[in-house]
Amino acid sequence: MTRDDSGDADSASDDDPRDPTTVTDGGNTAAGADDVALDPWGSSTVSDYRKLFEEFGIETFDDVLDEVPNPHYLMRRGVIFGHRDYRPVARALREGEDAAVLSGFMPTGDPHIGHKLVFDEIIWHQQEGADAYALIADLEAHSARGLSWDEIDEHARDYLLSLLALGFDPEDGELYRQSTNREVQDLAFELGSNARFAEFEGIYGFDGETSVSHMQSVVTQMADILYPQLEEPKPTVIPVGPDQDPHMRLARDVAARMRYFKVTEAYASFEADAAERDHLAAAYAALEDDLDTVRCEDAADWLEAEMAPDAVRDTVIEKLRAAGKEPLRPRVRFLDRNATDEAFDALIDAVPGEKRRYDEHIDAFDMDREAAEELAREVEVDHGGYGFLPPSSIYHRFMTGLTGGKMSSSVPASHISLLDDPEDGYDKVKSATTGGRETAEKQRELGGEADECPVYELYAYLLSGDDDEFATEVYEECVGGERLCGGCKEQAAELMREFLEEHQEKRDEMAEVLDDLDIDLDSDRRGVPGSGH
């Protein structure tokens, strides 16, 4: 149960076995929210983050946390809960190799404490050695949200000032607007040749009423995501909320389609998918010690005798029978996707050891997959290609609004703007919904429900800073019934006031820095705001 502003309740579940500094699903959901559909321009939240692992292939961040050097407190506390292919970025940071981080901000209103999550993620990656990029998504704001250019200009300055005040180093990073970055627009044009309207229908629900500029803004976002790799391929992470995952999936697909070569594993001249290769690998492993040369027909016999019938096994057997006496041998395969004749010939020359050339692929017998990927990318870049690495992403939980539901810029009482008067910030926290019990007596007896409390989220996401011990203390005192809502909110309100005072002082200091940067904050563009659909 949640309460509005009582002074006698608290926030957390006393039977939760998880780390008390971890913010759980219950504290981040709005009643009736769609738990599967992800809409980058919608307002729904995610009612069960576990569904994202099942439905969309997002991996839990806990699985990669131990590989991250000096992890940010948002990672340690489970606020960053998921990732897509983050290991290459973590490895690059750990080993001091090139990496990049990029995220964008659609200037539709004041930056608020929910946006601070992304600001912090960019800044942390920059401090850990990654090249850092932050952009104002003004084309998207104009086409999809219908903002005028004057409105965009006003909000863009506020976002950038807060980013700088929180620690972004503009001398060691890049800030830009979509509308003034010609390299991004040129890349978007190239990427557009590998994006199809049918995909936009399937991913975003676009239809005949969707404006062309809205579709163009999506391709521009693909270009933003890949922009850090324009000079050279490097592991790149995009910190986003889970509602932005459709953009990440499309960007990874489009990046792959731009590549000259696809590298895969193979066992014979015919093509096989991943499940079929598993069967081929099993047959080869079983036969290689007994036969001088393992032939396709030998593998077919073994699969027929040893594997239970299923559709995959039967398809593999059919392919093996057709190949007959062809030797079955593990190899890596370079498939020609978009390579020029010169690049294809150069790759043939560069492949070491035994190799076999076909019309549209090359098989290499003395290379492993990782070395083959590196060689393919090197040849591609040397011959005018991009060589993009698939962009990675990390996902943070939505902050619950102070009044319940999702924190929203369009609902002033639900959020604390980074521009709010510190006294207003204090008052909003004091008036916030909590996860406390009906009475102080029940609170002391049962403990509060921190996992359903917007005020506890403020501690975990922001007010505790890097102090895990303090965040844990607040949680455990709440769960144990020692901490009541009145005192808890008073402490949080004081800390919020102090944060806003300090942040706004730093914003004032950064005004001159921003004015000296090469970024146009007074657009002379003209146009009628779009509406997306």
Explain how this protein is built.
By secondary structure, the chain is α/β, with parallel strands linked by helices. It folds into three domains: 60-258 and 390-396, HUPs (Rossmann fold), CATH 3.40.50; 262-382, no CATH class; 412-516, Tyrosyl-Transfer RNA Synthetase (Orthogonal Bundle). It has 21 helices and eleven strands. The protein has helices spanning 50-56, 62-65, 73-76, 87-95, 113-127, 138-144, 149-165, 182-192, 197-204, 212-226, 245-257, 274-287, 296-306, 311-323, 341-350, 369-382, 422-430, 440-446, 454-463, 468-479, 485-516; strands at residues 59-60, 80-84, 100-105, 131-136, 173-177, 236-240, 261-266, 331-336, 355-357, 361-364, 392-396. Strands 1-2-11-6-3-4-5 form a seven-stranded mixed beta sheet, with helices on both faces. Strand 3, helix 5 and strand 4 (131-136) form a beta-alpha-beta unit.
What is the tally of beta strands?
Answer: 11
Name the beta content range: 5-15%
> What topology, given as strand order, has the largest sheet?
1-2-11-6-3-4-5
**How is the CATH topology of the largest domain named?**
Rossmann fold
Residue-averaged pLDDT: 87
CATH class membership of the largest domain: Alpha Beta
CATH arch. level architecture of the largest domain: 3-Layer(aba) Sandwich
Terminal CA distance: 39 Å
Overall outline? globular
Number of domains: 3
Structural class: alpha/beta
- CATH H-level superfamily of the largest domain: HUPs
User: Can you tell me the residue ranges where pLDDT is under 50 for at least 5 consecutive residues?
Assistant: 1-45
| Radius of gyration computed on alpha carbons | 27 Å
**Count of helical segments?**
21
Helix content: 40-55%
Question: What composes the largest sheet?
Answer: 7 strands, mixed
Function: Catalyzes the attachment of tryptophan to tRNA(Trp).
Keywords: Aminoacyl-tRNA synthetase, ATP-binding, Coiled coil, Cytoplasm, Ligase, Nucleotide-binding, Protein biosynthesis
GO biological process, one term: tryptophanyl-tRNA aminoacylation
Catalytic activity: tRNA(Trp) + L-tryptophan + ATP = L-tryptophyl-tRNA(Trp) + AMP + diphosphate + H(+)
